[in-house]
Amino acid sequence: YGHIKGDQCLKQVAQILRRTSDGDFCVARYGGDEFVFMAYDVSEDKVRDFLRRLVENIRNAAITFDKKPDTDTDSVTISIGAVIQNRATEGMELAELLKQADRVLYEVKQSGKDGYKLRIE
Question: How many H-runs (helices) and E-runs (strands) does the chain carry?
Fold first, then answer.
């Protein structure tokens, strides 16, 4: 849809991410249209609530674009793969957590997108 429309969309999504995080989560653009969020010492319930609100807030924002041929919608949706690491593992690298979250994200995308899945490690 072009760089200008894509940039406008990413800015709107970023504002929703920041507002929804309530300061409990660090949210950053990871690349392209992907974002990453991290938190330390946050309960599973709080993470689930954040994920649920984030999906709802993106839906409710109704950020529109031209309808893609492979979808039934003309508005932006979000798919989220999240991992909670309950036990600190010596030497666990951020790259490994990102890989785990990415695997969960693809499970969400394969099941229809526009939602989230949380895995507890």
Answer: 3, 4
Both ends of the chain: CA-CA distance in Å? 38
Cα–Cα distance for residue pair 116/80, rounded to 1 Å: 4
Q: If we measure between CA atoms, which residue out of 10, 52, 43 comes closest to residue 24?
A: 43
pTM of the model: 0.85
3-state secondary structure of 7: helix
Q: pLDDT tens digit string along 20-70?
A: 998 889 988 888 888 999 888 889 999 999 999 999 999 999 998 766 656
SS3 34: strand
Helix, strand or coil, per DSSP, at residue 79: strand
Cβ neighbours of residue 50 closer than 8 Å, sequence gap 6 or more: 20, 21, 22, 24, 25, 37
User: Which helix (DSSP H) or strand (DSSP E) does residue 21 occupy?
Assistant: helix 3-21
- At residue 46, φ and ψ (nearest 5 deg) are -65, -40
